[in-house]
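Table 4 source record.
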Amino acid sequence: MYSIEIEENAERFLQKISIDDKKIILNKIYSIRHNPFRYLKKLQGQKFWRLRVMKYRVVVDMIISGKRIVVLKIGYRKNVYQI
């Protein structure tokens, strides 16, 4: 099972959205701990992965050897990939 770490930037975005959306996003993030490769898709030309949750995207960095998933950024689809 992978451990989940949420960066400060992602935490700030979660504070701005509705409580219902926040719950859905966090449930989805924590549900991928057992089999992350089933839900994550590799971003082209980058070492990061993405997770789709409704109209939001979650950009993560996977550290496979350490069994860690680091949530780097959460945002709307139109601007989340501008890292």
